[in-house]
Amino acid sequence: MDFKAFKQEAAKAAESLGIKEYELYYTSSEDTDISTFRHEINEFSSSVSGGVCFRCIVDGRMGYASTEELSEAEAQSVVRRAKENASVIENDDRQFLTEGGQKYREPESRKYKLPETEELIKKALEGDKKLYEADKQIIDGSAAGTGVTTVRTAIVNSKGLDLSYEASAAYFMADAVVSDGKEMSDAYKMVFGSYDELDIGAAVGEAVEKAKAMLGYDVAPTGSYPVVFAPEAMTSLLSAFSGIFNSENVQKGLSRLKGREGEKIAADCVSLIDDPFYPGNGVNIGFDAEGSPTETKNVIENGVLKTLLYNLKTANIAGVKTTGNAAKAGYAAPVEIRPFTFYLAAGSVSEEELFKNVGEGVYVTSLGGLHAGANAVSGDFSLQSAGFMIEGGVKTKAVKSFTVSGNFYELLKNITALSDTVKLPRPFGITAFGSPAVAVRGLTVAGK
Amino acid sequence: MITREVCERVLRKAASSGADYAEIFAEHTVDHSIKMIADRVDNISDRIIAGAGIRLFKGLRSVAASTTDTTEQGLMRCAQRAADALGQGSAEISIELKERLFGDIHPIKTVPATVSNAEKIRVLKDGYFAAKEFSPEIKQVTGVLLDVDHGILVANSEGLYAEDRQIRTRISINAVAEHNGETQTGFYGPGRRMGMEMFDSEVDARAVGLKAAQQAVTMAAAGYCPAGVMPVAIGNGFGGVIFHEACGHSLEASSVAYGLSQFAGKLGTQIANPKVTAIDDGTIPNAWGSINIDDEGTPAQRKVLIEKGILKTYMVDKFNGRRMGMPSTGSARRQSYGYVTTSRMTNTFIAEGEDNNDDIIASMEYGLYAKEMGGGSVNPATGEFNFAVNEGYIVRNGKICEPVRGASLVGKGSDVIMNIDMVGKNLDLGTGMCGSSSGSIPTTVGQPLIRVSKITVGGR
Question: Which in A314, B31, B182, B394 has the greatest CB count within 10 A?
Fold first, then answer.
């Protein structure tokens, strides 16, 4: 059965169990992915996935249950299970469902043209050819990938809310593996958008250049240096620590920003913006996972913490209005809080000028192991890094296999300058992170 | 789940455009978790995951398609999509499925769905409040009790029709401690391929909470770990994550088949210190990463990957095995039907050695004792890895001294595995989730206490 029929069955079941307040949240995604190996299509996959989450308020407590099986029996089962689950919940914070009939800002529609499978295959093979032609050091294992991704979400509830959106895009990915006979190095670049506009030449060029730059690398010397984070590295850090701005974490003591709204928490040059309508992101959305209208806001403005990110429940506890940041990590997940396009605002200098100002230091282009090496509660991080030395004010030799350690709360205060161009390394998703290059004073580098 | 007759018709449709191998993987999973925070039951996630994935091989090409619609019509549409992607043609292949029972080497005494929420909450609270009441410095605790009942069916054009039911239970406690304005966390999360009887015989919920809380309190009072290259002793159990990342991923066929591994082409050669013997064993009864059959229907195996430093075998799935000319080693795994199966680890560990644990610490003039490790990651092509140290201590003149926080270990797998120069005698296993192209799957890591003669320690 489809979602519409499932919804009706669930409504009937809710009524018969005396459930007055409930919501259904539906997600369905379709993905096609194609990849090459040695000039041939090696893997093709086409997946359809998704499901429905039913949640309801019973005696003031919120219960959840989900399923991927859309059948009459499952519609009755989720309703019964959600009610049962609500009965053992001890969280007595006031729970909310959104009334229908609110006004939402309509995002600028982005109708990306999606290709047929044959076209995708052609583009993947074309990308593969370009990769091998791009450089003599390219070796087997280099791959081109193409695909399309479509996500549909709908939220309906017992209070007349009925919202839905759909986003889709095509992508191209170049995965370059190079070897100088001794060492191997790899790097990839992914571009999203309308199929016709995917710049595969640029993606191939960037992947190959990045992979080659790391051949014949050195290990950075141990010490304390100023560090310039490339946008790709800074967005990794920002994504690992974005939870510190989540009001639920703050209320539960999992962030050190408790009671800091209105205070200075970062250097004057730092502004951090959350924008659900950011033009550079392929997904723009006018409502959040609770159906509240979304809005653009400065989270940090010239170093001052202006607001945390709220949903209905946490806003009620804090006595403020929701910022429209309710989010779910998948259809079955509870309602949490996440930013949309979350980015550090651009500064005024070029990357070259950042290097010049730093003089002697390290330029970090990528950070690894963020799920382990970054502690979102304490703010401490110690991360595997790769990049280049900055010597005499210019970018010099490649360095790898070293760590950069610090504390994110301190780092925000120690930012000395930001470059003039914001980049989104992955510009397609309800949540996406962006940053210019960022210079930070005094971080510890452990290498040789 | 899906009858033999339906599977036969779907496989015939799937193979109709010339595939030389066709496979259906179907699943019905009940995924249930209870979360506590701020001393209250905060949320229950209660989820049915159901769907099917069809895979086709033709030579060295693979096509995969998945669907949430497991009616015969839905499966037929999915089979058609896969067949169309593989090519044109109207091949007729005869498929006759024979049901196989591999048996269950992981007995389950209490299926989670038969235990009430109230009973599960009682166990979770034991662990939760053991952590919360450990010290006034403990400011927050998060506790999760997870149980998964993962039913799978695999049918393929070789005639296999087999089912398996994989039940797992895990409790994890995360404690936050504050000391003089500094905040640190402690974590412990043991799990087994068992039902709720895990708490009778294997895991004491209170001990889990205490261990997490103790770690948080110790680390909150610790200074930063100094940075530099030094010898490191890595504790038993979850410390085995070092082998998992630094070496294990590079031994998976998904990297090796494409030459994208630091250990491709190295079978029979010495890749590790002669002190190192490493094993991947999916057959350990009721271990967290154990299986009866893998997600291609191959029975679980015990494989010696490295014997006294010599590389003996890789971990191979059917598709990548074709390119390598190697049979499956029972290593094919996927998170669920929507992911494309590839070679993965099960329970992977460094075997016990001959060094006395006391001698290992005593041998270190100055270095780090990484008692508890956090997670890590690796680039299998180059072997560059990193791990977080959750609980570390400085070793001075052969004695374990003050605790240090914020340490990480980085290096290259092929170097570090050569530098494991002492291996102790207290083998233990640790519970983890491993993420890769075929999704997040339960894996066990393990080792006795080991010494790495030198490794880069990230600190400040």
Answer: A314
Q: Which helix (H) or strand (E) holds A8?
A: helix A3-16
Mean pLDDT computed over A105-133: 88
A206 and A226 together in one domain: no
Closest-CA residue to A425 (of A351, A365, A361): A365
Report, as an integer, the average pLDDT of A281-291: 94
**Hey, is the C-beta of B376 within 8 angstroms of any chain A C-beta?**
yes
pLDDT tens across B407-416, in order?
999 999 999 9
Q: Are A298 and A408 in a shared domain?
A: yes
On whether both A183 and A270 belong to a single domain, the answer is no
Chain B residue nearest residue A251, CA to CA: B38
Do the Cβ atoms of A134 and A187 come closer than 8 Å? no
Chain A residues close to B388, C-beta within 8 Å:
369, 372-373, 382
- Do A195 and A319 belong together in one domain? no
Same domain, A204 and A306: no
pLDDT above 70 covers a percentage of chain A that reads 99
What pLDDT band is residue A416 in, cutting at 50, 70 and 90? very high
A298 in the same domain as A223: yes
B170-197: per-residue pLDDT in tens?
999 999 999 998 899 999 999 999 999 9
Look at residue A164 and tell me if it is in a domain.
no
CB contact at 8 A, B283 and B444: no
**Nearest Cα to B410, choosing from A400, A17, A286, A7?**
A400
- Which of B:325-354 have CB within 8 Å of A? 338-340
- For residue A23, tell me if it sits in a domain: no
Contact A49 B50 (CB under 8 A): no
Express each pLDDT in A152-203 by its tens digit: 999 999 999 999 999 999 999 999 999 998 889 999 999 998 888 899 999 9
State the pLDDT at residue A371. Answer: 83
- Count how many domains chain A has: 2
> Residue A10: which of A60, A56, A68, A76 has the closest Cα?
A76
Q: Where are the domains of chain B?
A: 228-458
Amino acid at B157: S
Q: Within this chain, do residues A441 and A296 fall inside the same structural domain, yes or no? A: yes
The whole-model pTM stands at 0.94
End-to-end CA distance of chain B: 55
Query: Is A252 in the B-facing interface, judged by CB distances under 8 Å?
Result: yes
Mean pLDDT of chain B: 95
- 217-276 in B: which are within 8 Å (CB) of A? 224, 227-229, 258-260, 262
A229 and A180 within one domain: no
A403 and B86 within 8 Å at the Cβ level: the answer is no
- Is the pLDDT confidence value at A109 over 70? no
For residue range B299-340, list pLDDT tens digits in order: 999 999 999 999 999 999 999 999 999 999 999 999 999 999
Supply the range of the domain harboring residue A184.
Answer: 117-146+171-216
Please say if the pLDDT value at position B89 is more than 90: no
Q: Tell which residue, A183, A137, A204, has the closest CA to residue A400.
A: A183
* Closest to A434 measured CA to CA, from A368, A354, A343: A343
